[in-house]
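Subject: Protein record for review, amino acid sequence with backbone structure tokens
Category: Structural biology, sequence-to-fold work with a learned token vocabulary.
Format: Residues in single-letter code; tokens as whole numbers, each standing for a residue.
Body of memo: The sequence and its backbone structure tokens, given next.
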Amino acid sequence: MAQIKKRGDTYTIMVSLGYDNMGKQIRKYMTYKPEKSLTPKQIEKEVQRQAVLFEDKCKKGLYLDGNIAFSEFAEKWFADYAEKQLKAQTLARYRSFMKRVNAAIGHIKLDKLQPHHLTEFYNNLKEDGVRKDVKYKSAVDFKKFLLDKNLTQEKLSKETGVSVFSVHSLVKGNNINYDTALKISECLKIDFSKLFFSENNKTLSDKTIHHYHAFISSVLSTAVLWQVILTNPCERVKPPKFTRKEAKYLDEDELAQVLTVINSLPDDENQNCLMIKVLLSTGLRRGELCGLKYDDIDFENRTISVNRNLLYLPDKGIFENTPKTESSIRVIPASPYIIQSIKEHKILQKQRKIECGDKWNDTEYIFTAWNGSPLHPDTISGWFRKLVKKYDLPNVSIHSLRHTAATILLMKGLPARVVAELLGHVNEITTATIYSHVLKSVYDKAADIMDDVMSGKQNRQDKKKHG
């Protein structure tokens, strides 16, 4: 129940809402000043009414002020804004940030949050050991260790709550993740550093820290918009500078090498091979490729419509989503070779459907799992990674095939504006930024052409050519 205290000619109304994650009581306050025209009895009645209204607002989460902790406001931001406005993958990434963010600034009230709190947090993110996605190995002979402790793999799994597979990985000398290693060391009451080590305990990249900054800034910008605080402290903080890495791509000789291997593979690899060829010839993103359906292909006019992304998140499984941006929804031309290959693939898929019988799932996706179900996007990435290693191909990822398509088109003289439209970039500035190294060589070539024209060299060559 709300508490009311009279202070001079005003009334302070306080509502208690339990305790925060630091064990501190959450209290909300408001000040009510009655109109001078009201009688004492009317004032008493109105104060009680204001208290009831205020308590109702607080309990429904409708009242916010700068006294709210960052962690509490962030949860409201997720519920009222992010879950309705952000794409699933961005939302999942921001959710994953909350553990570190809450540990650093979650307890700080919004109106007390200062630039130096954020700067300290960003500096902490750059320290060694902050990454928890680093893989760890046993620092001891783990098989002998279990024998000495009179433990079986199954017993250790049961006692620690980690999978038998993870314990077996340690015995074989393979990697496990940080959380699994921590559970084992804590359960056995052995110092973590004496039991495990990492060969690559990297810090977070400056780009990742920028993502943290963008997340916090988005939360605080919403707080300003909702009039919870007056200004966003992120606007007075400079996160670490980061240099955009040059896009990795295959040059024409390396591309020929990959295609030679692809074309030599057996028939049971047809689907994977076609996926690689489509990526190389169109510059599609991996999710866009996996989301293609036969209705998206105009076989007569030889075009591909990009209408959806097929994505995966642990808590959602494989799911459809809209493309990355509005400009990613597009229609792109396809070569006769690719169109014909998709036609042949459709025939083979119909045969597979007959073989599967009632186990087949009719999803209409072009590229599917063995039974017609949506294809996990990681499937083609994993297959390509193994192919690169097996045949000693240039060390590029599946996303590099998109960069390869863009680079070749730009090198062949296609305008950046057109390439931007084909790739689904927001504008050609994005394309120019990502492929600045390619455009520089194209611009240099343009300068050479103009130099030939201005010096008369081109005219002499033309005259010589035409007799």
Q: What stands out?
A: The longest strand covers residues 10-19. The chain has a mean pLDDT of 88. The beta strands are 3-7, 10-19, 25-32, 137-138, 196-197, 297-298, 303-306, 309-313, 317-321, 330-333. Residues 18 and 24 are 8 Å apart (CA to CA).
